[in-house]
Every structure is written in C-alpha cells, then in structure tokens.
Design brief:
alpha+beta
C-alpha cells in the first residue's frame, strides 16, 4: 500500500513538472519569435516589442501622396502615338526620296496651310535663283504640281537645296497631355536634340527640335512656341534636309529667336535664321533672303552653339562652332547695326565639345587673340 502511494505521488510530481515545462517552452518560443521579428528594427519605447508592419497597399482611386501607405498614383493622360496630323510618310523604301517627292506626298490639308521657301547653296546661278523664286510663287498661288516640278529640276541639276515650311496657321497639338503635368511639344518621334529658351518681354517659351522622319534619311528642325507657360505648344516652322545635319542651336535676343544650324551633305556650312518672339513667325526679310551664311571653311562642323546678351544690352548674338579639325570659330551679330551682318573670327584654340561659353570668354579677353578684341571694339 505504501509503495502504491509513493508511485502515485511520483507520477503526480512528474506530470506537474511536464506541465510547467511545456508552459515555459511555449512562452519562450513566442518571445523568441517576437524578438526575431524585431531584429534590426528596434522597439518603439523601452522593451516594447514591435509587431511586423502590414504591407503597403494603395487603394484604387486614392490620391494621397502624403501617406506612406498610399503612394501617389501614376495617372496616364491621353497617349498620342505616331506623327503629327499630316506628317509626311517615311519614304526610305521609295524609288525617289528627294525633297520634291516629300512635297508630293504632303496631304492637301498641309499644302493649303504651308508656304515654302527654298535655300540654295552658296553662289547660286541666276537660273537657279529664278527657278527657286518661281517655285515659291507657284506654291503660294496653289499651283503645287508646277512648284514641285521646278524643285525637282533644281535637285536634278545638282543644287544642294533645303526647304523651309512656314505654317500659315501654327500647327497645334490635338492632345497636349501625354501624362499628368507633362506638356508635350509636338508628336514628333526620333527627336535628337531639344533647345529651350524664354522671352522676358512677351513671356513666350520657345523650343527648337532636331529630328528625323522615322527610319528615312530625311532630317528636320522645327520652331515651336508656347504662349501659356508651356501648357500647350504650336509648331510655326519646319526646315527640311535630305541628309543628316550635325547640329542646331537657338537663343532669344531682342525681338527675335535666332536659330543657328548646319547645312550641306558634308556639314560645312554654318547658317542662321531668326523668328519673331511675338508669334514665332519667320522673319523673311532677314538678310533680304530670310537666312544668312555665317561661314563655310570646307571643314565639317561638329557642333554649334548660339548665345547672346539678353540679360544686359540685349543686342548681340554669338555664333560659335567647333570644326572637325579642332578649329574653333566665333561670329557676332549686332542687332542695332543698319544691316544685319555676321563677322567670323578664326582661332586655333583647341576646345572640347560642350565648352563654347569658355571659348567665347577666351576669345574676347585673351591677349594673344588680337583679332577678337579688335572686332569687338568695332562693334561697340
């Protein structure tokens, strides 16, 4: 009897011990699990244990950028795909991809809205000048086929010409909102370069775009204006080339947006045009023919940059260029002069691409470059 009592007592103690051990084991495991969850995160205060944070889920339709649990939503606007309305199709695979053929492919709506100007090469013949003038007249009179025939004959004769398209009514973008808070400048694709500037007198913004037409060998630059602080844009002018020109630049000085660009298939010609800051229209009276040749040194131009003094006397345009033989050129034009003219300054200074501002300063102040200070004195 006594042995039986002792056995029952021992069994009771063993069961109690197991119960306590199991309870402690359960508490210790929970504590260990919670400690593992807070590794690297610390605790909010004292020994308080942090619970794992719930994953951030953005509720559809919410727009609360201030809350970490609801990140801002990306709100796409109306997506615009493809070229401008009436943009000329890619003609890479056609038999004849000359400029005259590009005009022939222009839809009627664009023809009615366009005035053309023809830029010939240096020292054009009298017959070429006459044919170019006749083509421009035919086009303005609506005799498009006759104008195209004249341009075709010019190209077949070997003239290195370019076409300028002046829109009677600036081409507006139908769907200016591409994504929220973005104002799209045209619907051009394959844009290679964008230059922006601002006119303090009118508040108008300007963008000059360099681009190509799809996969073709045709390259363009265009002038675009915004009169509402960049919310909407309109294209006022387009310049055509049947080769890849190396560069284009622009700056606002006085009452004009000045555009410096490169011409000819060997990229040797430095040229300039200007457009009114009031409405972005081409100044067809500039240099009597609407454009000016700055220089042609029979060397490919790698880079051009226009700058001005709009923040001071607002009357000078600087046209700087880097040539393929590492020669730098600087040309200046003073707006208040009786007749617009550009005076080249040649230097053997070696400069790296992108350092035009330093180049201008050096050419104006360096004692060894005697020509530059002399010409600046002549301008004053």
């Amino acid at each position: 009897m006594r042995r039986k009592t002792v056995s029952i007592f021992v069994l009771f103690i063993f069961l109690s011990f197991c119960s306590v051990f199991a309870e402690n084991l359960s508490k210790g495991g929970t504590q260990s699990t919670e400690n593992r969850l807070t590794l690297g995160g610390g605790s909010e205060s004292g020994n308080k244990i942090q619970k794992p944070r719930a994953p951030m889920i953005s509720t559809p339709g919410q727009d609360n950028p201030g809350s970490p649990s609801t990140p801002p939503e990306f709100k796409p606007g109306t997506y615009v795909k493809g070229g401008d309305e009436g943009q000329i199709p890619d003609t890479k695979n056609t038999v004849d991809s000359a400029l005259w053929n590009q005009l022939a492919l222009m839809p009627d709506s664009s023809r009615f809205n366009a005035l053309i100007s023809i830029q010939l090469g240096p020292d054009p013949s009298s017959s070429a000048l006459q044919a170019a003038g006749q083509a421009e007249t035919y086009w303005s009179e609506g005799r498009y086929d006759q104008a195209i025939d004249q341009i075709k004959n010019l190209e077949l004769s070997g003239e290195q010409l370019n076409l300028g398209i002046r829109w009677k009514r600036p081409k507006a973008l139908d769907a200016p909102s591409w994504v929220t808070n973005d104002g799209r400048i045209g619907t051009r694709t394959d844009v290679d370069k964008t230059i922006l500037d601002y006119d303090a007198q009118t508040g108008n913004l300007f963008a000059v775009l360099k681009y190509r037409n799809g996969s073709s060998t045709f390259w363009y630059w265009s002038v675009n204006i915004s009169t509402d602080q960049g919310k909407t844009w309109q294209e006022t002018y387009e310049w055509w080339a049947r080769y890849e020109f190396s560069d284009v630049s622009a700056v606002v000085v006085d009452d004009y947006l000045w555009v410096g660009y490169v011409r000819f298939s060997d990229n040797s010609g430095g040229y300039m045009m200007r457009f009114a800051v009031a409405d972005g229209s081409e100044d067809t009276s500039y240099n009597t023919i609407g454009y000016s040749q700055v220089f042609d040194k029979n060397q490919p131009i790698k880079e051009v940059s226009l700058s001005g003094n709009a923040d001071s006397t607002d009357d000078r345009v600087y046209y700087s260029a880097i040539l393929d033989n590492s020669t730098s050129l600087l040309a200046m034009e003073k707006e208040s002069s009786p007749a617009p003219y550009v005076h080249p300054v040649i230097s053997k200074v070696r400069v790296e691409p992108g350092s035009q501002e330093e180049m201008i300063e050096a050419m104006e102040t360096h004692p060894k470059l005697k020509a530059a200070p002399l010409i600046l004195d002549d301008f004053s």
